[in-house]
Amino acid sequence: MVVEAKRKKGETFESFVRRFNRKMMQSGTILDFKKKSYKKKPVSRNRRQTETLARKVYKSKREYLKKTGRLPEEEPKKGRRR
Q: Is 70 exceeded by the pLDDT of residue 32?
């Protein structure tokens, strides 16, 4: 969908932008874009398994280093809770 808007004679830039945005909303272009931007492509089963395995290996190595004292204990994060 192509939305076309031309600036009218004597029209301020702010009012032109407002009019353009209103046309975009009415045409549904913005809504379409937002829907597409959050959709993730499906990941293959093999890749998902290798990523899971890598996370498990990384986690077990960190746990081992913590237990042996080679990795300092993490301090609890300070800040407010939401």
A: yes
